[in-house]
């Protein structure tokens, strides 16, 4: 399916404490993700109150936002693995449909 010549894919965003980022990256690698964006020191208001974006002692004390885009064929397994991870660790996941101009970058 396309939108103005773009290819439909799935965007997955996670906000997790820095100490859990390696586990998320492992999930990405295991699912065959070809790339991701990582933003350190994110802040916001959530279920556990306000989180400041500044680092306290080290990178692991801050929240991190990880964003990846995958073909729909890879999304189900990746989402299932990330849900299992989030059952054991703090964090939140957002999943949305998205459209990309260069689908070959994601396969």
UniProtKB/TrEMBL annotation:
Gene3D superfamilies for the chain: 3.30.70.120
Record-linked InterPro entries: N-reg_PII, N-reg_PII-like_a/b, N-reg_PII/ATP_PRibTrfase_C
Domain of life per record: Bacteria
Molecular function (Gene Ontology), one example: enzyme regulator activity
Classification via Pfam families: P-II
GO BP terms, alphabetized: regulation of nitrogen utilization
Name of the protein this chain belongs to: Transcriptional regulator
């Amino acid at each position: 399916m396309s939108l103005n010549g773009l290819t439909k894919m799935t965007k997955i965003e996670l906000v997790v404490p820095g100490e859990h980022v390696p586990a998320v990256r492992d999930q990405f690698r295991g699912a065959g993700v070809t790339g991701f964006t990582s933003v350190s020191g994110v802040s916001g208001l959530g279920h556990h109150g306000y989180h400041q974006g500044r680092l306290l002692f080290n990178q692991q004390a801050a929240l991190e936002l990880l964003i990846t885009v995958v073909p729909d064929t890879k999304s189900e397994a990746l989402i299932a693995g990330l849900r299992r991870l989030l059952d054991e660790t703090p964090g939140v996941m957002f999943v949305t449909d998205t459209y990309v101009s260069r689908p070959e970058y994601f396969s």
